[in-house]
Inverse folding.
């Protein structure tokens, strides 16, 4: 699973929190258009501009804990 961190939420305040980790879902068509499919605060996946996020690498042990929370 891939993760990203929100670096700016202007215009998306109800859906995203700045400095929060979000799960990414693989969506090559969206990425080709400069968008990322992210599971947001609603618990559903939506498309957001790529510049709203920064990629982050998470170790397997930490990922297991995040998914269990």
């Amino acid at each position: 699973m891939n993760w990203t961190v929100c670096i700016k939420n202007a215009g998306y305040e109800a859906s995203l929190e700045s400095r929060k980790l979000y799960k990414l879902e693989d969506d090559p068509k969206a990425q080709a258009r400069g968008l990322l499919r992210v599971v947001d605060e609603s618990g559903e996946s939506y498309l957001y501009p790529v510049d709203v996020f920064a990629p982050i690498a998470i170790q397997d042990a930490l990922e297991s804990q995040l998914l269990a929370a």
Remarks:
- The first helix runs from residue 28 to 32.
- The chain has a mean pLDDT of 91.
- Residues 2 and 29 are 17 Å apart (CA to CA).
- The helical segments are 28-32, 60-68.
